[in-house]
Write a structure and sequence with these properties.
alpha+beta, Amidase signature (AS) enzymes, two-stranded antiparallel ribbon, 13 helices, Amidase_dom, AS_sf, Amidase domain-containing protein
Length: 501
């Protein structure tokens, strides 16, 4: 774990307490009592999920404004982990995020270093700011907002923790892409469940319309086990039963990956990297087509730019309106906090003696936008109907029904996730991309890393509402087709550390 800053809480639970929990769980196992299939397994959770002070960690969402807040209890999703016998090793800092927006211009990094953990020389950010970093986006000089040196969404700590071998499982959250984007870049599997299947109480919110917690792991089976454990209502049949090894019962639709690709301002083009990814996508499409029950090419899924209504982005309007109201509701459930409402968050001043490194030109555009938003109930309802209609009725459901398919597959490096976020209910799965063309690696069980800089890349699948089982079927088929992840080396404090397999 990262070294803690003097002004900040330790991001991991006290070691003595962890040993006591592990010992107690071992005693339970020896006595023949298992709380579940993940009994005694460690997990790391995101720093926006409440943990009771007795666990020795603080929930801050990466913000000094919440540093002294005390949750009344564990968030229900955290309590379910404990009840299932998992050991919460620690929290991961939030260092990238969507800033409570849905547009491509809002994805930022670098406000303040709160937990003492860095992504290269980038600073840990508070997700509601819209700051300009000191040097550039990501670890590479001159990189763009989701460039090849960026770890991607705000749950990238969840992904990095598993990829680096700190924990076999992790729990993050997503509004739009924050689970599945970083999972792809760390060569992991993840799923954003249908909104509402997992309690969001006790989680620092962006939008109840789109938010959901979700698991990450190295295999579809691991992810299925963790999702089983955190659902509000346990499934009648474990999702692990859906992790098959065949495409034969799946009908698959593919979007045109070039149409959905990020623009140059969001993902700085590197010709060799782009060619490698395009080649791998094409080969993956071809291999799936040869095995699937049926397929549909270039399905005309509605595009992210189609959400404007009377000159306003309906998605952005809904998320900003939700942000302030949902944050106020979150504060009311805390045992204590220095904040009284969203406006006190907006006006929060960092103490002069705080050990904080600020980037130049930092601001809080997104929080100001949410606070200043004037939107009547009728206007909100109109925008919400437009979002749901475009994302669900004229979006995902239309494509699934018209083409008689179970899942839609597209590139992870895209705004593909916005459509699922808009629909609210449809699920998302992160499928790490195997390299299968002759230019790179043969399909020998190795997942794809860019020759350019070694970062992972992948694809996403979207299914209909409450169709998580279909996503796990697709993940299982993918895993069987392209093979397991190869552990990757990570670098910490100048030392090479080998990840666990």
């Amino acid at each position: 774990m990262a070294t803690c800053m003097r002004c900040c809480p330790c991001p991991h639970a006290p070691r003595q307490a962890l040993r006591a929990v592990a010992s107690s769980l071992d005693d339970e196992r020896a006595a023949g009592r298992l709380r579940g299939p993940l009994h005694g397994i460690p997990v790391i959770i995101k720093d926006n999920i409440d943990t009771h002070p007795s666990l020795g960690m603080k929930t801050t969402a990466g913000s000094l404004a919440l540093l002294d807040s005390k949750p009344r209890e564990n968030a229900p999703v955290a309590q379910k982990l404990i009840d299932g016998g998992l050991i919460i090793l620690g929290i991961h800092p939030i260092h990238t995020s969507l800033n409570a927006t849905a547009d491509k211009t809002s994805y930022d990094t670098g406000t303040l270093q709160l937990q003492g953990q860095r992504s290269s020389e980038r600073l840990v950010r508070c997700w509601w700011s819209n700051s300009i970093p000191i040097r550039s986006w990501g670890a590479q000089e001159g990189d763009t907002k989701d460039g090849h040196s960026m770890p991607s969404g705000s749950s990238s700590g969840s992904a990095a923790a598993v990829a680096a071998g700190y924990s076999p499982l992790s729990l993050g959250t997503e509004t739009n892409g924050s689970l599945v984007w970083p999972a792809s870049r760390c060569l992991l599997y993840s799923i954003k469940p249908t909104v509402g299947l997992i309690s969001q109480r006790g989680i620092v919110p962006v939008s109840h319309t789109c938010d959901s917690a979700g698991p990450m792991g190295k295999t579809p089976y691991d992810v299925a086990l963790l999702l089983d454990a955190i659902l509000d209502t346990p499934p009648h049949t474990s999702f692990t039963s859906s992790v098959t090894e065949s495409w034969s019962n799946l009908s698959v639709g593919f979007v045109d990956y070039k149409t959905w690709w990020y623009d140059a301002g969001f993902l700085k083009p590197v010709e060799d990297a782009t060619n490698q990814m395009y080649g791998s996508f094409l080969d993956a499409y071809d291999r799936i087509k040869s095995s699937a029950k049926s397929f549909a090419d270039n399905v005309p899924l509605i595009l992210p730019g189609d959400f404007d209504l009377n000159g306003q982005d309906s998605m952005l309007s809904v998320l900003l309106a939700d942000f302030s109201k949902d944050f106020n509701a979150y504060l009311k459930n805390l045992e204590s906090t220095n904040l009284t409402d969203f406006n006190t968050l907006r006006n929060f001043k960092v103490p002069d003696d705080a050990k904080v490194d600020w980037p130049k030109n930092h601001d809080q555009v997104r929080i100001d936008s949410a606070a200043d938003l004037v939107l009547s109930s009728d206007e909100y309802d109109t925008h919400l109907r437009n979002v749901r209609d475009l994302g669900r009725t004229r979006g995902i459901d239309k494509i699934l029904n018209e083409h008689n398919i179970d899942v839609i597959i597209g590139p992870a490096d895209s705004q593909f996730t916005k459509i699922a976020a808009a629909a609210g209910e449809p699920s998302q799965g992160s499928i790490s991309q195997s390299s299968v063309n002759r230019e790179h690696r043969l399909p020998s069980g190795l997942l794809a890393r860019l020759d350019y800089n070694g970062r992972g890349f992948g694809m996403l699948a979207i299914a209909g509402a409450n169709q998580e089982a279909k996503l796990f079927e697709a993940m299982g088929a993918w895993h069987a087709t392209f093979g397991p992840m190869e552990p990757s080396p990570v670098v910490a404090e100048g030392l090479e550390v080998k990840a666990s397999s």
